[in-house]
Amino acid sequence: MSSQKAPSIAVRGVGKSYSGVSVLHDIDLDIAPGEVHGLVGENGAGKSTLLKILGGAIKADAGGLSFDGEQVTVGSPRDAIKHGISLISQEGALVPALSVLDNVFLARWSHRGGLVSARADRKRLAGLIETTGFTVDPDARVDGLPIGVQQQVEILRSLARGARVIAMDEPTAVLAEHEKENLLALIRTLAAGGTTIILVSHFLEEVLSVADRITVLRDGALIRTLTAGETSPRELVGHMVGREIDVLYPDPQPVPDGAPVVLAARGLRRGLVNGVDLEVRAGEILGIAGLVGSGRTETLRLLFGADRATDGVVEVDGVTLAQHSPRTAMAAGVALVPESRKEQGLVMQRSVAENVALSSLSGRRTGPFVKRPAEKTAVGEIAKSVDIRAADPEAPIETLSGGNQQKALFAKWLLRKPKVLLIDEPTRGVDVAAKTQIHHLITGLAADGMAVVCVSSEIEELLALSHRVLVLRHGEPVGEYPRGTSPEVVIAAAFGSHEGEPR
Amino acid sequence: MSVDTLPKTAAPEAGNMSRLAFRMRDYGIVAALVIIVIALSVSTDTFLTSGNLVNLLDQTAVIGLLATGATICIISGVFDLTASATLALSAIIGVQVGRVTDVYVGMLAAVVAGALLGFVTGTVVVRSGVNSFVGTLATSMVYRGLAVMVTGGAIVYPLTASAETFGMLTWPSLFGLTSATIMFVVVVAILAVVVSRTTFGRRLYAVGGNAEAARLSGIRVGSIHVTAFMISGVCSALAGLILASRAGSAQSTMASGMELTAIAAAVVGGTSILGGEGAVWRALVGALLLTLIGNGFNLLGWDTIYQQVLQGLLILFAVTMDRWLRKRTR
Question: The whole model's pTM is what?
Answer without folding.
Answer: 0.78
